[in-house]
Design goal:
It catalyses: tRNA(Asn) + L-asparagine + ATP = L-asparaginyl-tRNA(Asn) + AMP + diphosphate + H(+). By secondary structure, this protein is of the alpha+beta class. The chain has 14 helices and 16 strands. The longest helix has 23 residues.
């Protein structure tokens, strides 16, 4: 008999049918009641075993983590808390689980312990819920762009260009480390390497994405990106997924509209598709926050926070205005900020971004028109800015609890200005000859943004550490699993 998913059994409209279910034992009580879960839903289905007619040897093997197959009748449940249960007629142990050694026992585990067991943590309610939400969010991303006629582009993972100009990249090489070929100057001879040049894992698909937008009109990428940034924080990963739309003929205003509409769409989508998982995660967050001092607790419950983003327009504020607000803020005056804001031109930190969102405006914020010298070379220089205070058409979207969730800009479409900016920053024109070609041949105003997918999942699930929203986190000193 073909097995039926637990989710479908719990949503069934007919009972007294012969069914088969397969899954993993969450708990086994009184030698009679199995709580069975197969990953299709956060809810378990109760399977009632006829223990008097089941061999003791089989009952002993029904342990937490064991994989089982049950065949029986779906009936209305006698107990509270569930609509249906399975009266088991036949039970087969598919895979034993040693109760003494299985780490995921039915008790509360610390998130740190679960990270050390990332290969098994998805068997807990919390991580099952997080990963289902992540999956639905990924589907929502594709749904949004596909319905709007965007073309999905797979940009290269191995690249010779540093899109951000930050230099924090993982090198890709096939050269031997014990006998590396050298040039006459003693430098590594990359001409003898696999690609004949120095290559890295990509930090962004944006530059390649721009070339496709200048032919296909509107494109998006959604793939893995890598940063060799030695940041051991709750907001950084060395390997993460990025969503990067790029749209020809869009200016900064259009770009902000697109980002806001996109974020609201995907949040609404996951709220519609994952109500039970989100309700569970909300309860988990409330429980976790009970141990925190009142001042550190969230002002809103998870679902309230998600609805808040859906129901409120994002506040649009210039960088210059934001700096004035921060400079005159109480935490700045009382030196409570770790990084004190003294003057225009400062690079905003997470504490500043969160202050603007959580304390000052109390809604998502889009900051725009940043100082040119703290932003990337490809961002469009604003006209009529005073010398020394040049700004670019950049925008960042800031969210409560997260800080920056989106970074984007109108791109510099003027060939001469782009070349000047590259020269000033020491970026090799020959290295990016193909990128400059898009400004030589049919250049036009265009814009795009990047959204770190894990930060979006972090916000939607209410988790506080980015390592808990990706299956196997890659961080400094950790490439386990």
């Amino acid at each position: 008999m073909k097995h039926t998913k637990v989710k479908d059994l719990l949503n069934s409209t007919t009972t007294l049918q012969e069914i088969n279910a397969k899954g993993w034992v969450r708990t086994f009580r009184n030698n009679q009641f199995i709580a069975l879960n197969d990953g299709s839903t956060i809810n378990n289905i109760q399977c009632v075993v006829d223990f008097e007619n089941t061999p003791d040897e089989t009952l002993k093997r029904i342990t937490t983590g064991a994989a089982v197959s049950v065949t029986g009748t779906l009936v209305e449940s006698q107990g509270a808390g569930q609509k249906y249960e399975i009266q088991v007629k036949q039970l087969e142990i598919l895979g034993d689980s040693d109760a003494e050694k299985f780490p995921m026992q039915p008790k509360k585990h610390s998130l740190e312990f679960l990270r050390e067991n990332a290969h098994l943590r998805v068997r807990t309610n919390a991580f099952g819920a997080i990963m289902r939400v992540r999956s639905v969010l990924a589907h929502a991303v594709h749904t949004y762009f596909q319905e709007k006629g965007f073309v999905y582009v797979n940009t290269p993972i191995i690249t010779g260009s540093d899109a951000e100009g930050a230099g924090e990249m993982f090198k890709v090489t096939a050269l031997p480390f014990d006998n590396t070929p050298r040039t006459e100057e003693g430098k590594v001879d990359y001409k003898k390497d696999f690609f004949g040049k120095e290559t890295n894992l990509t930090v962004s698909g944006q530059l390649e994405g721009e070339t496709f937008a200048m032919a296909l009109g509107q494109i998006y990428t959604f793939g893995p990106t890598f940063r060799a940034e030695n940041s051991n924080t709750s907001r950084h990963l060395a390997e993460f997924w990025m969503i990067e739309p790029e749209v020809a003929f869009n200016d900064l205003e259009d770009n902000m509209d697109l980002a806001e509409d996109f974020i609201q769409f995907v949040i609404k989508y996951v709220m519609d598709k994952c109500p039970e998982d989100l309700k569970f995660l909300e309860g988990r967050l409330l429980e976790e926050e009970k141990s925190k001092p009142q001042a550190e607790r969230s002002e809103m419950a998870l679902l309230e926070k998600l609805n808040f983003v859906l129901e409120n327009n994002f506040k649009r504020v210039s960088y210059t205005e934001a700096i004035d607000i921060l400079r005159n803020s109480t935490p700045n005056k009382k030196k409570k900020f770790q990084y004190i804001i003294n003057e225009w031109g400062a690079d905003l930190q997470s504490e500043h971004e969160r202050y603007l969102v959580e304390k000052h405006f109390k809604c998502p914020v889009i900051l725009f028109d940043y100082p040119a010298n703290i932003k990337a070379f490809y961002m469009r220089l604003n006209d009529n800015t005073e010398p020394g205070k040049e700004t670019v058409r950049a925008m960042d979207i800031l969210f409560p609890g997260i800080g920056e969730i989106v970074g984007g800009s109108q791109r510099e479409e003027r060939f001469d200005v782009l070349v000047e900016k590259m020269k000033a920053l020491g970026i090799d024109e020959e290295e990016l000859w193909w990128y400059l070609d898009t400004r030589r041949f049919g250049s036009a105003v265009h814009s795009g943004f990047g959204l770190g997918f894990e930060r979006l999942v972090l916000f939607v699930t209410g988790m506080t550490n980015i390592r808990d929203v990706i299956p196997f986190p890659r961080t400094p000193g950790s490439a386990e699993f």
